[in-house]
């Protein structure tokens, strides 16, 4: 393995997830020397996007987690075990290629078009008015990237996908709403859009269920209240029981995002979120950051300074010892003893599924869409299920196909609930056989699907969501800053806030990702 | 959601003065083959011994004229990300041109160049114009027999393997040319140090660029794609008349 010519850095960043990559770019931009390492040979870590072949390989690795064969780890108290830690994050991994009688070569065709897929582990959208868009604009890093407007938001209602109106115009022109409903909805949307966060405006409902508030104060029928709570929101809840204050805040942010770039509140990234990661990493490199992919961290060393024990050095798998002042790290790279101290206890488990379809959803032309399944939808799910459809314009898949991502809170009934919701969207050979009716099945066919459960680990420091000083109260060695996993939210807001908190802790007072100096335009 | 206003630009009348056509050009090749030096020679017509990697420039720009058209190259350097196998796919996505550089005194650098060409042919824009450039011919120039090793083309990093060994050509021009022909690449031998062949690489690329295709969608949103809903982050309120114009608040 190649050797680094420099062995001391102001900051070593471990992992190329979004939080790490934003922090790396901001730190390099602020003049810090940065070494950015990823144990994988690709960018993105738990935020990665894969070709078809690479996704299968990822699944294979995680279906049968490796066992620690090394015994020397026992002798080194601060040994790191990236691969095992990372694989333990993913459980119940299952990949299915579906065999269709008249399409026996499905698997071959998927593989032959492998590189036309960008299949994401943690798909997300950008809120048009959100922190990430603001950062990409303010820093000019958005110029590296390409975005599309999300076309539609649906809610499953009586076995039908119903397009959710999310603006005044859409409410006016809706053909499924009665005049009275339109009036009530308008009244509510006006109110929510003007919500200042002052809870007294909520008539004592602030901490009560949002659905109750919508029904009692605005007289919205359950169908409309569900549409507001689950689909007219920047943060579709993953569990029931959203409070009115939370709910109306996310509705307001959704409404305020509408119209910034066109008639939608959400943007899709072409090639997926991993592309955003690569853009931030490029900026870090352009400002002098050094990049190493495919090198593991073997172990860490604490400094001998007793006053405040800090982490001082790490060894890379190429045998080099690297010293640094600050360590910014994804959870997976940390020694086991530090992980527990770093992570907030209530880490969440989420069941995720990615499915490649041979066509668009029945009767629907939208190429990109969010599809919400409110609790107790006609599919029968007890907890909310969120789905996201991407297409070839976002380079998720070849033309004509679609990719549907879906996720829900993991639990005893989660797999069944997810399957039931997905059956309303597409068919598998099993679900087709079961529906042996005379009607022609309009649903697109699933060609491939992968499902897994993941543990979403949030750092204790970042958990409060505060951008204030990184106290280190998690009793990690001084100078260690932990990055959160991708969460189950639809948007990227939390990652930006966490990266910024880490940046502020390392370089208090420095400007966070200002624009780069302009490039001189040379004449002929 | 057809973007009508951009669409009309595609069929723009010929009397309209030609705006420069922007071309994203990426540099690829092993570390220390002289990628940055080639750009510096082309853009500023200068050469620096032991040049440090450029800090803070996402890309450099340079215009060049081809017949009645002006091409504005947006030249992307690797920012050192090629060193530890860490060049992101995003780097060469949507590039319309690439210069893959090797060092004529190091055979291994041509092997690396070939693997980059393969990667571009698999991953990049299918119409990408690729030029293969064998750099540092000043080191093996027969006309300059009295060149000393310490005057070598030491851009990016000194060729430490060289030490006191006499510098010899390891890649015959005919071999590289044969490979380039067979792979559909433009081929040049260059010296960033002496300025030899550098302008020619860029000129020839500019001539080969299919201008019509340049007016089709590109990553930076300079031209619109009919029927797409691509968006430009620096242009709020596109399509619906101003930011918040349709906001319910």
Write the H/E string of chain B, N to C. HEHEEHEHEHEHHE
The named CATH superfamily of chain B: P-loop containing nucleotide triphosphate hydrolases
- Tell how many strands the DSSP assignment of chain B holds: 7
Largest interface: A-B, 61 and 53 residues
Q: Classify the oligomer.
A: heterodimer
Query: Strand sequence of the main sheet of chain A, in spatial order?
Result: 4-19-15-18-17-16-8-9
Report the span from N to C terminus of chain A: 44 Å
Q: Level of helix content of chain A? A: 25-40%
| Class from secondary-structure proportions of chain A | alpha+beta
Q: Which consecutive residue ranges of chain B, at least 5 long each, have pLDDT under 50? A: 1-13, 143-160, 218-227, 239-249
By CATH, the architecture of the domain at 8-51 and 272-345 and 459-523 in chain A is named 3-Layer(bba) Sandwich
Tell me the number of strands of chain A.
Answer: 20
Rounded mean pLDDT of chain B is: 78
Description:
The complex is a heterodimer of chains A (524) and B (249). Chain A is an alpha+beta fold and 524 residues long. Chain A is built from 16 helices and 20 strands. An eight-stranded mixed sheet of chain A has the order 4-19-15-18-17-16-8-9, with helices on both faces. In chain A, strands 1, 2, 11, 12, 13, 14 and 20 form a seven-stranded mixed sheet that branches. A three-stranded antiparallel sheet of chain A has the order 6-10-7. Chain B has one domain (21-243): 3-Layer(aba) Sandwich (Rossmann fold). Helix content of chain B is 26%, strand content 18%. Chain B has helices spanning 4-10, 35-44, 89-92, 107-123, 173-183, 198-208, 211-214; strands at residues 21-29, 60-66, 69-76, 97-103, 129-135, 186-189, 230-231. Chain B has a six-stranded mixed sheet, with helices on both faces. In chain B, helix 4 links the parallel strand 4 (97-103) and strand 5 (129-135). Chain B is globular, with a radius of gyration of 21 Å. In chain B, 41% of the residues are buried. Mean pLDDT of chain B is 78; it is low at 1-13, 143-160, 218-227 and 239-249. Strand 7 of chain A pairs antiparallel with strand 7 (230-231) of chain B.
């Amino acid at each position: 393995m190649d050797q680094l010519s420099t062995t001391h850095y102001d900051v070593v960043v471990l992992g190329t997830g979004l939080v790490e990559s934003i922090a790396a770019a901001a730190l390099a931009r602020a003049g810090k020397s940065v070494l950015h390492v990823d144990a994988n040979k690709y960018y993105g870590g738990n935020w990665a996007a894969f070709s078809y072949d690479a996704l299968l390989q990822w699944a294979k690795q995680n279906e049968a987690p490796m066992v620690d064969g090394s015994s020397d780890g026992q002798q080194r108290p601060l040994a790191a075990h990236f691969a095992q830690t990372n694989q333990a994050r993913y459980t119940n991994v299952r990949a299915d290629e579906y065999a269709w009688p008249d399409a026996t070569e499905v698997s071959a065709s998927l593989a032959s078009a492998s590189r036309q897929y960008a299949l994401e582990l943690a798909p997300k959208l950008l809120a048009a008015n959100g922190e990430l868009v603001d950062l990409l604009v303010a820093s000019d890093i958005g110029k590296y990237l390409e975005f599309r407007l999300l076309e539609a938001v649906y809610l499953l209602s009586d076995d039908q996908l119903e397009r959710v109106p999310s603006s005044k115009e859409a409410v006016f022109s809706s053909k499924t709403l009665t005049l009275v409903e339109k009036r009530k909805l308008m009244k509510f949307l006006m109110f929510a859009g003007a919500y200042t966060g002052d809870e007294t405006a909520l008539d004592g409902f602030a901490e009560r269920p949002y659905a109750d508030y919508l029904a009692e104060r605005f007289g919205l029928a359950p169908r409309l209240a569900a549409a507001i709570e689950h689909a007219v929101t920047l943060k579709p809840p993953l569990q029931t029981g959203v409070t009115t204050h939370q709910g109306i805040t996310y509705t307001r942010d959704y409404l305020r995002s509408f119209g910034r770039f066109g008639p939608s509140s959400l943007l899709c990234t072409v090639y997926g979120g991993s592309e955003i990661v690569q853009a931030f990493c490029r900026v870090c490199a352009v400002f002098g950051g050094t990049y190493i992919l495919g090198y593991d961290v073997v172990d860490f060393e604490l400094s001998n300074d007793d006053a405040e024990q800090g982490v001082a050095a790490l060894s890379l798998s190429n045998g080099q010892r690297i010293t640094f002042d600050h360590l910014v790290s994804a959870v997976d790279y940390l020694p086991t003893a530090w992980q527990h101290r770093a992570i907030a206890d209530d880490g969440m488990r989420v069941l995720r599924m990615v499915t490649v379809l041979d066509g668009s959803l029945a009767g629907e032309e939208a190429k990109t869409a969010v599809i919400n399944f409110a609790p107790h939808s006609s599919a029968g799910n007890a907890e909310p299920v969120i789905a996201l459809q991407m297409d070839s314009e976002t380079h998720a898949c070849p033309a004509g196909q679609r990719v549907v991502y879906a996720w829900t809170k993991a639990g005893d009934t989660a797999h069944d609930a997810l399957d039931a919701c997905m059956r309303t969207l597409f068919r598998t050979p099993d679900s087709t056989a079961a529906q042996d009716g005379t009607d022609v099945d309009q649903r697109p066919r699933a060609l491939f699907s992968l499902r897994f459960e993941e543990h979403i680990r949030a750092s204790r420091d970042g958990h409060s969501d505060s951008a204030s000083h990184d106290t280190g109260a998690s009793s990690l060695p001084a100078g260690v800053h932990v990055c959160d996993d991708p969460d189950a939210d639809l948007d990227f807001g939390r990652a930006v806030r966490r990266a910024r908190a880490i940046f502020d802790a390392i370089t208090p007072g420095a400007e966070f990702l200002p624009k780069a100096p302009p490039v001189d335009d040379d004449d002929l | 959601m057809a973007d009508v206003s951009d669409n009309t630009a595609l069929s723009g009348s010929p009397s309209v003065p030609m705006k420069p056509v922007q071309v994203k050009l990426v540099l690829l090749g092993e570390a220390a083959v002289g990628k940055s030096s080639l750009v510096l020679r082309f853009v500023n017509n200068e050469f620096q011994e032991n040049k440090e990697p450029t800090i803070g420039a996402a890309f450099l720009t340079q215009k060049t004229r081809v017949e009645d058209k002006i091409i504005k190259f947006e030249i992307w350097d690797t920012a050192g990300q090629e060193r530890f196998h860490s060049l992101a796919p995003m780097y060469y996505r949507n590039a319309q041109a690439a210069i893959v550089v090797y060092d004529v005194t190091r055979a291994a650098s041509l092997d690396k160049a070939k693997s980059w060409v393969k990667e571009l042919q698999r991953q990049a824009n299918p119409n990408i114009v690729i030029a293969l450039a064998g750099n540092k011919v000043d080191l093996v120039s027969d006309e300059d027999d009295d060149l000393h090793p310490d005057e070598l083309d030491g851009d990016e990093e000194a060729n430490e393997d060289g030490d006191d060994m006499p510098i010899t050509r390891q890649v015959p021009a005919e071999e590289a040319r044969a490979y380039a022909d067979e792979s559909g690449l433009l081929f040049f031998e260059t010296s960033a140090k002496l300025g030899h062949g550098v302008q020619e690489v860029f000129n020839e690329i500019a001539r080969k660029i299919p201008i019509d295709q340049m007016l089709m969608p590109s990553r930076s949103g300079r031209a619109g794609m009919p029927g797409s809903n691509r968006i430009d982050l620096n242009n709020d309120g596109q399509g619906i008349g101003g930011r918040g114009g349709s906001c319910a608040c």
